[in-house]
Amino acid sequence: MLIQVPAQHDLHGYQQKKSKHQSLCVGLAQTEQEIEEAQRLRRNVFTEEYGAKFLDQASDIDEDQYDKWCDHLLVTDQSTNRVIGTYRVLRPEQAILAGGYYSESEFNLTGLNKIRHQIVEFGRACIDAEYRNGPTLMMLWSGLANLVKMKKYQYVLGCASVSLRDDGVTAATVWRTVRSMIDQDRDLNVIPHCPYPAAQVNTELPAQIPALIEAYLKLGVKVCGEPAWDPDFNTVDFPMLLTVSQMNLRYKKRLGFDHEN
């Protein structure tokens, strides 16, 4: 069967958006150099903050077999020409060519089969620590929202990672907060290949939910299965699914979904 893949210019058609208060702009990477800058940022953040272990220790970038099939969303500081934030985006037609979604390396996605053709996957999210704030995150989300609206995707899939450098205390706190969500949509659940026993970790110690996960929950993202253990990245990964029609109304307005026909 011939698979039609939309041309890249089809997605690059929208203008880069600029911040009102900073020299930041958001848009899709259009050169190999820009993609490498995003991969270098990913490598630095994942190594320093998660203690990730990469097979190619000599490389200074984070790259895997999915990167070549993905679109790479970037926030750039134009005053320094630095990439300071990124997501990678795997559309359903790209996922077919890539042999599946990245999430399938950690989860059995059979429970999502009926909506698979409407799923876009966002992943490898990271922001430089110096710019890690609400406005930068909203710039990334505005870029992602443009892609979702242009292609009329109904579901957004991804994994939210929690570092295990605290011996799983934060992961257990997150699990305690989100576990009730799984029962709400049993027919849209996923199953981890390598489950992480978050419920068995000592939860008496205090821990805060990571800011990015907290932001996802406010957006209306649901956890759609038990967490998986990723030994290479030294993380616990929570499967996250956003049903666009059920997005928080406040964020629908901020991201422009309330203007859709």
Task: Briefly say what this structure is.
This protein has helices at residues 8-11, 32-50, 92-98, 134-151, 169-178, 211-219, 249-254; strands at residues 17-18, 24-28, 71-77, 82-90, 107-108, 119-127, 155-163, 191-192, 222-223, 228-230, 235-243. The chain is an alpha+beta fold and 261 residues long.
Structure report:
It is a single chain. It is built from seven helices and eleven strands. The protein is an alpha+beta fold. It has a domain at 87-259: 3-Layer(aba) Sandwich (Aminopeptidase), CATH 3.40.630. 38% of the residues are buried. The model is unreliable at 1-16 (pLDDT under 50).
CATH class of the domain at 87-259: Alpha Beta
Assign the CATH architecture of the domain at 87-259.
Answer: 3-Layer(aba) Sandwich
User: Unreliable runs, pLDDT <50, ≥5 residues?
Assistant: 1-16
CATH topology of the domain at 87-259: Aminopeptidase
Overall geometry comes to globular
Strand coverage percent: 15-25%
| Average pLDDT score | 87
Helix content: 25-40%
Find the structural class using helix and strand composition.
alpha+beta
The total of helices stands at 7
Report the end-to-end length measured between terminal Cα atoms: 33 Å
Q: Give the biggest beta sheet.
A: 9 strands, mixed
- What is the N-to-C order of secondary-structure elements (H for helix, E for strand)? HEEHEEHEEHEHEHEEEH
**CA gyration radius, whole angstroms:** 18 Å
Number of strands: 11
